[in-house]
Amino acid sequence: MSDLAKTARDVRRAVGAAHAERKSIGFVPTLGALHDGHLALFERARQQCGYVVVSIFVNPTQFPPGTDFESYPRDLDGDVKKVEGAGVDLVFSPSVVEIYPPGDHTSVEVTGPLAECLCGPHRPGHFRGVTTVCARLFNIVQPDRAYFGEKDHQQLLIIKQMVRDLRFPLEIVSVPTVREPDGLAMSSRNAYLSSEERRAAVVLPRALFAARDLLNAGERSAAAVLATAREVIDSESLVSLQYLELRDAETLREIHAVEQAAVLALAAHVGPARLIDSILLTPTDY
Ligand code: AMP
User: How far is the CA of 151 from the centre of ligand 1 (A)?
Assistant: First the structure.
């Protein structure tokens, strides 16, 4: 059975006791509305750490104005049931004022190329909200390792950069994207989709897989890969593409030919949902 903590103090106490037993601390930050993608992160943390902490916090600062902060799915009771059996020791579910006390004015922002492309320009302030909350949560939990999904590849790189730059004494571990049987990346936002939109959304992974197939067949031109993926998405009128880009997997610099590890990343609107997905194209794939 997982313990539930509402305050930073409770977390510090529980983590301190685990440290005293010489257990390493694994931490998985989430927005809640948990699905099997989150569970994969918990399992990895369980395999590598003696004590696993999961935070469930719909972080207001990472939702740009006019986006879905109010409507984001919240189901703490359901989430607590899902973490049972996943080997999670502590669920941290703080209030907004616990994380952002009144009078508090400190943000953490990774600037530069990683934050200026892909989702950066489309969601102003989003990554600053993510790095700010992660910095605060890392300081509260003080984990040895923190776990992030490959699905949010840009977020993963930005968090790694923050950890490096601020010398947080922890390791960032990435976990591959967990998908539905038809390929759609699991996401709490999939709950926004009608059944028709859900069916349409499958063009997103299909586009990524078509691009990978083309690379496997020997194509190296970024333009050709992008055109193939775009064609798959354009065939579905319920899906409106926001961006589809092929970039270096580490620096996120734009590339014109796929000669080294690359990421093909997209964002699209499907009905009320803005969905993102990406695929890593590593040299072993082609
Ligand atoms: P979220 O609650 O959506 O902020 O996600 C919390 C963590 O779970 C992030 O590190 C995400 O990248 C990761 N995550 C979300 N969806 C998936 C998925 N389908 N597969 C693997 N990891 C995921």
Answer: 7
